[in-house]
Design a protein that fits this description.
By secondary structure, the chain is of the alpha+beta class. It has 3 domains: 22-95, ATP-grasp fold, A domain (Dna Ligase, domain 1), CATH 3.30.1490; 101-220, ATP-grasp fold, B domain (D-amino Acid Aminotransferase, Chain A, domain 1, 2-Layer Sandwich); 229-376, Succinyl-CoA synthetase domains (Rossmann fold), CATH 3.40.50.261. Helices cover 36% and strands 25% of the residues. The chain has 11 helices and 18 strands. The strands form 4 sheets. Strands 1, 8, 9, 10, 11, 12 and 13 form a 7-stranded antiparallel β-sheet that branches. A 5-stranded mixed β-sheet has the order 14-16-15-17-18, sandwiched between helices. A 4-stranded antiparallel β-sheet has the order 2-7-3-4, with helices on one face. The longest helix is centred in the middle third of the chain and has 20 residues, at 163-182. The chain is elongated. The structure holds guanosine-5'-diphosphate and manganese (II) ion. Guanosine-5'-diphosphate is lined by residues 21, 46, 48, 54-57, 62, 94, 96-97, 99, 102, 125, 191-192, 203-204.
Length: 377
């Protein structure tokens, strides 16, 4: 999931002709002041923190300014914020428009229907989660014809628009639809979409690029900084590896078993710190690589929970034993294993010969892992 900051989302919107306020990004207070003095953003203006979390309006991360000095002060205050755990590094300055109504429009994927869905609500400007369901209109959109004239008219009705704004909506929806499809997004959201005079303006932009299409968007490579350095290496090696806050490493296979394993450790008072999903990996080299990556995260203990369906237990065990040999003595950690399924006996034997006991019962093995992590921490 590549979530774009508002200004990047607006760049996408601009490309497709969605009407936007005039705006400019600044990284320092003096830059903010200069942006206003140069006239590229007219006064009065809005100064907005460029963070990925929502609720900025309520959280003091959106401010208004009537002069260049005020814009500077607003930028200074916002750039000093840590908004919901994220340090603010940029602000977006925009002309402050006299807004009439605030509306909500989004296109996203309805995974249950397996179709894009157009979501509209006349109650914009607040988080959509807090809007009464009856006030939200959802229309599935067939991807081949795209947003039809009928659906666009129905959207206008749900938003209570007629005349100029309704006409503006028609073009805006087509532009959003194009952006949704052509930019490989899983969400394009405008909240609020504001009625300004006889037209509409997108005051906010939320755009999320599909992860699986990220390779088609080198332009966003630099902003994918939500990964830790180890996660970045893992991604390059196509290893599913995620770092959390705890201290127990988890190696499992398949997303379902991996998640369940994290839950079980938590249940017994453990704190998973990094997890690795081997998926259907049946290549000892890959298992070794993955394990060495996990070792670099310095877990207090590692819990290996493998169910050999397609994956063979002996292959995983072999890769693991090979990897353990490569971890320097001083960096070793206790390993608790539970491997079941395809070629289980061979796998258990390989582990045993390397000094690792496989505990067949899930509860006892998870408890052993939690205890091991406590012991070595
Ligand atoms: P969010 O709270 O993080 O979603 O940030 P938004 O971009 O949605 O801004 C929050 C609120 O600030 C909006 O709902 C508007 O009420 C207000 N706002 C943002 N831009 C403008 C503007 O250009 N003019 C006016 N009058 N209000 C604005
Ligand atoms: Mn918003």
């Amino acid at each position: 999931m590549v979530k774009l900051a508002e200004w990047r989302g607006k760049e996408v919107f601009r490309k497709y002709g969605v009407p936007l306020p005039r705006g400019h990004v600044a990284r320092t207070p003096s830059e903010a002041e200069a942006v206003v003095r140069s006239g590229s953003v007219p006064l009065p203006c809005v100064v907005k923190a460029q963070v990925l979390a929502g609720g900025r309006g309520k959280g003091g991360a959106v401010r208004f300014a009537n002069t260049a000095e005020e814009a500077r002060a607003a930028a200074e205050a916002i750039l000093a914020l840590e908004f919901k755990g994220e340090r603010v590094k940029e602000v977006l300055l925009e002309e402050k428009l006299p807004i009439g109504k605030e509306l909500y429009v989004a296109i996203t994927l309805d995974r249950a229907r397996r179709l894009p869905v157009l979501i509209t609500s006349a109650q914009g400007g607040v988080e959509i989660e807090s809007v009464d369901d009856a006030a939200i209109e959802r229309q599935p959109v067939h991807p081949f014809p795209g947003l039809t004239a009928y659906e666009r008219r129905r959207a206008a009705r749900s938003l209570g628009l007629s005349g100029g704004p309704a006409k503006a909506l028609d073009g805006l929806l087509l532009a959003l639809w194009k952006a949704f499809q052509q930019e490989d997004t899983e969400l394009v959201e405008v909240n609020p979409l504001a009625v300004v005079g006889d037209g509409l303006v997108a005051l906010d932009a939320k755009v999320i690029i599909e992860d699986d299409a990220a390779f088609r968007h080198p332009e966003y490579a630099e902003i994918r900084d939500d990964r830790t350095p180890l996660e970045e290496i893992a991604r390059e090696k196509e290893i599913a590896f995620v770092q959390l806050d705890g201290n127990i490493g988890v190696i499992a296979n398949g997303a379902g078993l991996t998640m369940a394993t994290l839950d079980v450790l938590k249940e017994f008072g453990g704190n998973p710190g990094v997890f690795l999903d081997l998926g259907g990996t049946d290549d000892p080299k890959k298992v070794t690589e993955a394990f060495l990556l996990m070792a670099q995260a310095k877990p207090a203990a590692v819990f290996l929970n493998i169910f050999g369906g397609v994956t063979r237990c002996d292959t995983v065990a072999r890769g693991l034993v090979e990897a353990m040999r490569q971890v320097p003595e001083s960096e070793r950690f206790p390993l608790v294993a539970r491997i079941r399924g395809n070629n289980e006996a061979e796998g258990i034997e390989i582990l045993r010969s390397a000094g690792v006991t496989s505990v067949p019962d899930l509860k006892s093995s998870a408890q052993a892992a939690v205890a091991a992590a406590r012991g070595s921490a």
